[in-house]
Amino acid sequence: MTHTITAMMDSSPAEVAVDRQLLAECIQACLECAQTCTACADACLSEESVADLRHCIRTDLDCADICETTGRVLSRHTAPDVAILRAVLEACARACKSCGDECAQHAEMHEHCRICAEACRRCEEACNNLLAAL
Questions:
Q1: Which among 122, 12, 1, 119 is positioned nearest to 60, based on CA atoms?
Q2: Residue 134 in contact with residue 18, Cβ under 8 Å?
Q3: d(CA 56, CA 105)
Q4: Alpha carbons 9 and 75: distance in angstroms, whole number
Q5: Where are any strands of DSSP class E within 59-124?
Q6: In terms of Cα–Cα distance, which of 119, 133, 128, 134 is closest to 28?
Q7: pLDDT for 79-119, tens place per residue?
Q8: Which residues of 24-53 are buried (b: 16+ CB within 10 A; e: fewer)?
Q9: Which pLDDT band holds residue 2 (cuts at 50, 70, 90)?
């Protein structure tokens, strides 16, 4: 997917004013995390102990929405507002930390939560790396 993201950046007439590799990695991490969190929430709904996973489901869905939005905002290169980029990256990193922490609590019992926690950690790191480069 990074190849396609990079190809789209390269094809845009707008200047990309940040490290393209960090940007592509962050967009990919955001989109992957959104999908993983959505799938984890769905898997949690299928568990026998669904009531015990209520908070996990909520953090999964919140994180998925924030990651998807962040990936879309980062994909727009025409006249970006750096303050908005910073705000969405900070929100995404915070959501990923919260969701990663929550899923990690269930990781030993539910494989989908382990996978989700890992995706959240990668996305949090990618957002923080891009923030440092802005």
A1: 119
A2: yes
A3: 9
A4: 8
A5: none
A6: 119
A7: 899 999 999 999 999 999 999 999 999 999 999 999 999 99
A8: bbbbbbbbbbbebbbbbbebbeebeeeeeb
A9: confident
Task: Tell whether the model's pLDDT for residue 1 goes beyond 80.
Answer: no
Residue type, 109: M
CA distance 8 to 5: 5
Is the CB of residue 97 less than 8 Å from the CB of residue 86? Answer: no
Please say whether the beta carbons of 29 and 122 come within 8 A.
yes
The reported pTM is 0.94
Q: Which residues contact 3 (CB under 8 A, 6 or more apart)?
A: none
Q: Are 62 and 99 in contact (CB under 8 A)?
A: yes
Token pair, residue 130, equals 């891009």
End-to-end CA distance of the chain: 23
Please give the distance of CA 92 from its chain centroid, rounded to a whole number. Answer: 6
